[in-house]
Amino acid sequence: MRTKDSVEIAGATDPGIVRKNNEDNFAVDPDLGLLIVADGMGGHNSGEVASDLAAKTIVDFARKMLGGDKNIVPEGGTRGLSVRGAQLEYFVKTANTMIYEKGRAFPKDAGMGTTVVAAIVDAKGLTVAHVGDSRLYLWRKGELSQLTEDHSLVGEQVKRGQISADQAARSNLQNILTRALGAEAEVVVDVADHPLLPGDLVLLVSDGVNKMVTDAEIAAIVASEREPSRVVDALIARSRAGGGVDNITVVAARVPGGEGGSGVGGLVRRLLGR
Amino acid sequence: MKKKSVVVDALLGLALTGFVAGSFFLRLPLLESVEFKAYDLRAKLRQNLTPPPEIVLVAIDDDSIAQLGRWPWPRTRMADAVAKLRATGPKVIGLNVLFSEAEQNQGLVEIRRLEGVYRDLLAAKKVAQKGVDFSTEFSSAAVALDSDSKLQAALAAAPDVVLPLFFSPGSVGAKPEPASLAVSSSAIAAPAGLEGLIYEETKMSPPVPAFSEAAAGLGHVNLYPDLDGVVRREAPLVKYGGQLYPSYALRLTMAYLGLKPEDLAFTPGAELKVGRLSVPLDNENMMAVTFNGPALETTRVVSFQDVMNDKVDASLFKDKIVIVGPTALGVATVYQTPVAAGFPSMEVVANVIENVLHQKFLTRPDWAENAEWGLIALMGLFIMFVLPRLKALWGLVVSIVLALGIMGAGTFLFTQGQWLKVGYPMVLLVAGYLVIISKGFLVTEKGKELVEASQVETNKMLGLSFQGQGMLDLAFEKFRLCPLDDNMKDTLYNLALDFERKRQFSKAAAVLDHVAAKDPKYKDIAEKTKMLKAASEGAVFGGVGGPKKDGTVMITGGSTKPTLGRYEIEKELGRGAMGVVYLGRDPKINRMVAIKTMMLEAGGDDASLKEVKERFFREAESAGTLNHPNIVRIFDAGDENEVAYIAMELLDGHDLVKYGTKDGLLPLEKALDYVATVADALDYAHAAGIVHRDIKPANIMLLKDGSIRVADFGIARISASSKTATGTVMGTPSYMSPEQVAGKKVDGRSDLFSLAVALFELTTGEKPFKGGEGIGTLLFQIANDPHPDPRAIRADLPASLKAVIDKGLAKKPEERFSRGSEMAAAIRAVIAELKGGAPAAAPAPAPAPVKTAEVTAPAPAPAPEPARTPAPPVGLAPAEKTQPPAPAPVAAPTPAVERTTPAITLPGLNDSPAAAARPATPASERTLGPTIPNWKMPSPKPQAAAAPAPAPAPAPADATMRLEPPQRAGAGAGGDVPPPPKKDAFAGEVPPPPKKDAFAGDAPPPPAPNADPGATLRIEPTQSPDATLRLKPHSQEPI
Q1: A232: helix, coil or strand?
Q2: CA–CA gap between residue A153 and residue B33 (Å, rounded)
Q3: Sign of dihedral through CA atoms B804, B809, B814, B820?
Q4: Which residues contact B193 (CB under 8 A, 6 or more apart)?
Q5: What is the pLDDT of residue B1?
Q6: B729 contacts A178? CB cut-off 8 A
Q7: What phi and psi values does residue B271 have, to the nearest 5 degrees?
Q8: Which one has a higher pLDDT value, A61 or B1033?
Q9: What is the model's pLDDT at position B440?
């Protein structure tokens, strides 16, 4: 799939090896450049319900507010955000409301929640909003950086230096999130804008990947594959090989160019509207 | 946007296609000229540049005129030329000069006049003929001067000369003058029904009759240029006065082939047969000419003067068609042709002859028009539907391929003599490409308009989303905030239908009422509302939607209540951390209960679900063993559809959250009393091996009757253990203990830390650890930062309370109160002090001894447990008894250290429950069946040998453990004696009383007054194994 400005995107989810059900969900919309990964939680099938509802709500509202001739910005919202950031924040907050209210309305879905990391990408930049411990990575010229901070207890502890990353990996509080969609009526969403350069790869993953694959391995896989769909497949395969204890979801987007993107080739491409 | 732009693209494409098709149909000049250009380009490819062998042109060129005098020349010269050519033996001579009028020769006129005068004189005998016959002289002079006659003679002598005639523009509708026989003999009769399909003229300028008669034939030299002034076609036949006159070229050809007009066979709109040759005609009965250019280079041309001066080989003309005509500048009529401008008419004639003789024709095939329509339609569809969907590059590539294909085919056919008008589809394709692509470019470049969505719009969107998720009430809530326009009425109407479908008739009616308030006549709402209201009252209806459709009778209203297990769910009471809390009714004994639900999350397979369930019931069961007046009772636990639930005592009261704020503070004594009560309850639970893990004001209930209940024992653990993979969300962990934050295993002292936090909050109105941005700050503070001085926040707090809080909030578990009762006692000491007004000199040390005393207390603690099932009253009794003794020591306001000793009263306390304790243990064994082994496992580790020694401990492992410390201490019998020193050890951190800031360095207990080194030692071992032991039974499942 490609967006209007040729950012190639791909995504896939896999239940992993240990679990039978898949509580992860993802969504991509090439028209909007929208990428979403959500990792649900809650008993029965509520995890799926929550993550699915998060993805659907965000896509739905994004189509309504970005998909038309007009670029609709909601009133209010956090000050100082870019237009796209304000929109994305609104979509995620709306998803929170939907999940929270649905959990209240239907006892079988009570207490459900989900993480979400959602991004809007184009060839020039990305806007990311997230809640929970699903991550967004940016791979640029061989270097992988995590642009989101996990909203998990161990994540906070590591950040604070209270425990080491090693301890965090073994902590029995690993699964405790400090923020999630659907937990409370209001949620604080982390929103950020980042510029993108030709050749960059944006990666959204659920914790089923992080539990099994180290960042260094992720960087190596991204570096060895050009096509986003291959990156997605390779990461899922690697996560399964690593044990696959949790559901695995990967969405990747590659900004075109990067190799010979400048000079005559780039000019020709630009002239041809690529 | 996508959809709209597709429509726009299609409409644009359609408009373009319509324009092109219309132009094609009407031959509008704009596009027709484009087609002509394309024609001309292709025409050049058809040229035959080798001069045709049959034709020679004799050009009256600039040189000839320069040599022989200015034009017009005397006709005698023409006559000479004809005679000269005649002698070379050409087949046909074409004298392409118009002789419409007799030559006006002034000399001849004069001679004729003189001759007349002479004859008159002769007749009048005024002159006489004497020897000379002037008449003859006159006559011969007249003849000599009469060039027309000479030419006529020359023409007559050469019967194969063809002369041109010319149709001059006449007034429209004028009646043509009948032509003379000499002229009309060249024509054929026109078939009927040619009107409008052939060029028709009304005025003719034939050669003078004498020439007409003398000529072998006549042909018209009219050419009919296209709209753009270019001559592309020849009219082989032109209608005049009911007859069809052949063109000059045709007439020459006929003469060349020796054919007469009768030999022409004309099929209108199709072809003209010239003897054996066939000339294809288009529907205007025209013939497309294939021109060979450039002018005068693709035909053999000789100069007139060269012919006259015999400079040309006479054999050149033998059996040829020789055409004599002007090419000189200003003399010749020139035309623009596809291959060259300035084509002399003579050469046009030559080209036509060449085409006919060589049968080299350009025709429009029968299928041409259909093919052209097809191509236009194809291109139209392409730009309407395909092009907009292609990426820019592909659009370009496909368009170029299409254009090349059309052009190639058109050109190929053209060289094969078939003319397809490919200009139109090409124009359509190019224009379409430009319009669609530039539009796309402009639109994307422009960017989208930025609009701020009003609350109304977002409310509507939210409402629709809620409705889509089946959350109709919320949808209605949102819709109510929107103005009631027609669109919203319809939306609401649909919402009412949704409610109706869900049998929520009164809500459906309410929605319709909302619409009716604005527009009572909207659709059928009046009728429907009536129906719905009746239905909501439980009336029997044959389908609510309308009058008896299928006759099914259903009873609405009065539905059965949902159940969970055996409980009927009455309503939702609220939402807890893990799930919804419902008000339920046990129908068997008609008892109202609170039912707390939570999801059991399994790893996905049945085995793990089973394991999770087992764990849940184990936890619920152990929590259910708690029977204490200040602990919320658990009646029952069960699961249904993976929803686990716990039925518990329904309480009429509220939690203490609101008392934790500055404005909501309770009177100090009351707050202390509540906390002390909770501490006792915790002591009881901890003794039973149950850690609460989530002590906070929200879990402490104050009932209407003023009593206190601790809620949710073990539930934090159940929920934590059931969320295996993805984790749980927790609120702000303000009450977490440092060891909880660090993810270590916790014991009862963790609860006491949490209770101390609550105590801090309930007395000061502030939380000790407030955190900052992000939860991490809070966690860091809990783990590392000292808590603030409560007295700095509220100055009137007694120092003794500060001491209690300081001890309670110690970072290291072993530096806190070791038991709930110990903490309760310390708090009550503060209360007593408040009441008695005694200075709280050493309340701090007090807790320490109490604690030690209680090290033994655990033994009795389990005692109440057994009461749980067999004899509740018994269980209650000891519990109550424990409390009164506590105040006792407090009452004695003796010096700190001493005062602690009175804690000896505790032994007394021990006494009573002790008895109960014995029977209790077996009971607890039963309930905790599976856990017992775990208890035992670690127990040998500490000091298996030591255990037996302290006889007082009759209880199994538990007792041995507790006895351990005293033993080590080497103190006297009974666990009670060692406490004092131990207390002192703890006092290490307590010393603050003397020095406030001392607590900062609590880790090393430097100021410990009577700290005997052994004491510290003793404590350490006691604490840790004890802790592990206590945890084991419950932590057997790895969290």
Answers
A1: helix
A2: 78
A3: positive
A4: B268
A5: 42
A6: yes
A7: -160, 165
A8: A61
A9: 59
Distances (CA, A) of B500 to B444, B467, B518, B542, B546: 46, 13, 21, 14, 12
The residue in chain B having the minimum alpha-carbon distance to the alpha carbon of residue A90 is B458
Whole-angstrom distance, CA of residue B763 vs CA of residue B697: 12
* Alpha helix segments (H runs only) across B857-893: 864-867, 872-882, 887-891
pLDDT at A136: 95
pLDDT of residue B877: 37
Calpha distance A229→A206 (Å, rounded): 16
Residue pair B680/B824 in contact by the 8 Å Cβ criterion: yes
pLDDT value at A222 more than 70: yes
B173: exposed, middle or buried (C-beta count within 10 Å: 0-12, 13-18, 19+)? exposed
Partner B, chain A 43-102, Cβ-Cβ below 8 Å: 43-44, 46-47, 53, 57, 60-61, 64-65, 67-75, 83, 90, 94, 97-98, 101-102
- B728:A15 CB<8 A: no
Residue B523 CB-density burial (10 A; 0-12 exposed, 13-18 middle, 19+ buried): middle
Residues in chain B closer than 8 A to A159 (CB atoms): 776
Residue B435 identity: V
* A217 near B CB under 8 A: no
pLDDT of residue B921: 35
CA–CA distance, A187 with A181 (Å, rounded to integer): 7
Q: Do A70 and B777 touch (CB under 8 A)?
A: no
End-to-end CA distance of chain A: 14
d(CA B742, nearest CA chain A) in Å? 8
Closest CA of chain A from B688, distance in Å: 24
| Distance, CA of B730 to CA of B76 (rounded, Å) | 124
* CB atoms B743 and A171 under 8 Å: yes
Q: Which of B725, B741, B775 sits opposite A175 (nearest CB)?
A: B725
> Looking only at Cα atoms, what is the longest distance across chain B?
201
Q: Flag if B1039 and A172 touch (Cβ within 8 Å).
A: yes
List chain B residues with pLDDT less than 70: 1-5, 129-132, 159, 172-173, 440-450, 536-562, 575-579, 599-609, 611-612, 641-642, 714-732, 772-775, 837-1039
Please tell me the distance from the alpha carbon of residue B29 to that of residue B36, in angstroms, as a whole number: 10
Decide if A188 touches B, using CB distance below 8 A: no
- Nearest 5°: the CA angle B378, B380, B385 is 100
| Whole-number Å distance between alpha carbons of B1020 and A181 | 44
Q: Per DSSP, what are the bridge partners of residue B653?
A: B703
DSSP letter at B734 equals: T
Model ipTM value: 0.85
pLDDT of residue A43: 63
Q: What's the confidence (pLDDT) of residue B448?
A: 56
* DSSP H or E run through B111: helix B106-123
- Say which amino acid occupies B299: T
Residue B606, pLDDT score: 60
What does the pLDDT read at residue B636? 84
Q: Counting beta carbons within 10 angstroms of the beta carbon of residue A166, is it exposed (0 to 12), middle (13 to 18) or buried (19 or more)?
A: exposed
Model pLDDT for residues A105-137, shown as the tens digit of each residue: 777 777 788 999 999 998 889 999 999 999 999
pLDDT of amino acid A35: 95
